[in-house]
Amino acid sequence: MIKKFLCICAWGNVRSVAMAQFIKELNGKYQNHREQGTLEYEAIAIGNSVTSEETRKMLGEWADVKIDMRNFLPTDEWHNPRHPELKEKVKKIWEENYA
Q1: What's the longest Cα–Cα distance across the chain?
Q2: Residue 36: which CATH number?
Q3: For 97, phi and psi rounded to 5 degrees?
């Protein structure tokens, strides 16, 4: 069964994207998951400030787990979801809370 994660931050561009990318990469970087049953995780990043209530509700119902990155990293200090420091923080958040 695929576990589905909804990653949330303010604008949906950095913190939530960093977490969603991390989760997707748990499937195996650069692997082709076209075969049924080989995908373990799905992740979608959204911004609470720029996503309608209707869409937030729909994605909230889709998700098995909601990760609000604002609870862990209240402000975006990196401005890049692939920033090495942010990637390390995301890994630590995952390991301490979701692994």
Answers
A1: 39
A2: 3.40.50
A3: -125, -25
Three-state SS annotation for 35-89: CCCCCCEEEEEEEHHHCCHHHHHHHHHHCCEEEEHHHCCCCCCCCCCCCHHHHHH
Rounded distance between C-alpha atoms, residue 77 and residue 39, angstroms: 32
Domain count, the chain: 1
Question: Is residue 65 within 8 Å of 5, Cβ to Cβ?
Answer: yes
**Quick count: other Cβ atoms within 10 Å of Cβ 8?**
25
Report the predicted TM-score, pTM, of the whole model to 2 decimal places: 0.92
Picking from 86, 65, 64, the residue whose alpha carbon sits closest to that of residue 15 is 86
Q: Where in the sequence is the domain holding 88, given as residue range(s)?
A: 3-97
Give the rounded distance of the alpha carbon of 30 from its chain centre: 18
Q: What is the pLDDT of residues 7-45, one digit of tens each?
A: 999 999 999 999 999 999 999 876 777 776 678 999 999
